[in-house]
Design goal:
The protein has about 70 residues and is of the alpha+beta class. It has one domain (about 10-70). It contains three helices and three strands. The protein has helices at about 10-20, 25-30, 50-70; strands at about 10, 40, 45. It is elongated, with a radius of gyration of 13 Å.
């Protein structure tokens, strides 16, 4: 995972580098609102803070899923 600033705006390609998710998944999350962002022209952007929140939430969900699968 690449380091990033919570204050900067990132486009989809940069979010892909940060998170390791595929471009179509990032675009889907932005359209759905799971990852808060804004479309300017044809390009989606999101703040580093929103990316961090999504990643932390995803980590918590993954941990919960693993916890219940072990039972």
């Amino acid at each position: 995972m690449k380091s990033f600033s919570i204050f900067r705006l990132y486009n989809v390609n940069e979010i892909v580098e940060i998170t390791g998710l595929k471009e179509n998944k990032i675009t889907f999350l932005l359209r759905k609102g799971t990852l808060k962002g804004r479309k300017i022209g044809k390009i989606w952007y999101s703040r580093g803070l929103q990316i961090r929140k999504m990643m932390l939430q995803n980590k918590k969900l993954t941990e919960l899923k693993n916890k219940y699968e072990r039972r």
